[in-house]
Design brief:
alpha+beta; Thioredoxin-like_sf; binds glutathione; 4 strands; Glutaredoxin; 4-stranded mixed sheet
C-alpha cells in the first residue's frame, strides 16, 4: 500500500506508479544528476516534469515539498522504516539514493567520507555547471 495522498505535491503531479520513487525535475545540470543516478542504480522511478516556463516550481504544491522552489526533488514511498520520504537538494538526494541502492558509495567509513568530501566540493565549489555523479563513479564497479 503506497498512499502518497498526504503529500500535496501528488495533487499536481499524479502518481501512476505510487510504489516507485517520484522524481520532480527538469533536465538542467542539477536535475540530470538525479536522473542519471536513478538510471545507473536501476531503482524504479516515475519522472514528473516541473516546467519553469509556467513557474511550476513556485506553485503551492511544489513548495509543499521544497520551500526553496528548486528542482530536483523526490518522494520515495518506501523510505527509511518503510515510511515515505520527501527530499530536496541534489547532494542529499544522491547520498540517499546511493545508500538505498548500496551503489556508488563505499561502506568503509574513510572511503565514504572521502566520497562525501568530493560531493560537497562539487556542490559548494564547482556549482551547478557540473554533475557530481562522476565523483561517485570513482568507487563504482
Ligand atoms: N542546491 C540546489 C540547487 C538546485 C537548483 O539551482 N535548481 C535550479 C535548476 S538547475 C532551479 O530549480 N531553479 C528554479 C528557480 O530557482 O526558480 C541543488 O543542488 O539541488
Amino acid at each position: 500500500m503506497n498512499d502518497l495522498s498526504a503529500f500535496p505535491i501528488t495533487r499536481k503531479w499524479r502518481a501512476q506508479h505510487p510504489e516507485h520513487i517520484q522524481l520532480y525535475s527538469l533536465p538542467t545540470p542539477n536535475g540530470v544528476k538525479i536522473s542519471v543516478m536513478l538510471e545507473q542504480t536501476g531503482l524504479p522511478y516515475e519522472p514528473h516534469v516541473v516546467r519553469f516556463d509556467t513557474n511550476d516550481q513556485m506553485s503551492p504544491d511544489f513548495l509543499s515539498l521544497n520551500p526553496n522552489n528548486k528542482i530536483p526533488a523526490i518522494l520515495d514511498p518506501a523510505g527509511p522504516d518503510g515510511r515515505p520520504l520527501a527530499l530536496f537538494e541534489s547532494g542529499a538526494i544522491l547520498l540517499y539514493l546511493a545508500d538505498k541502492s548500496g551503489q556508488f558509495i563505499p561502506k568503509d567509513a574513510a572511503d565514504r567520507y572521502e566520497t562525501i568530501q568530493w560531493l560537497m566540493f562539487q556542490i559548494g565549489g564547482i556549482g551547478p555547471m557540473f554533475g557530481q555523479i562522476g565523483f561517485f563513479n570513482k568507487f563504482a564497479g
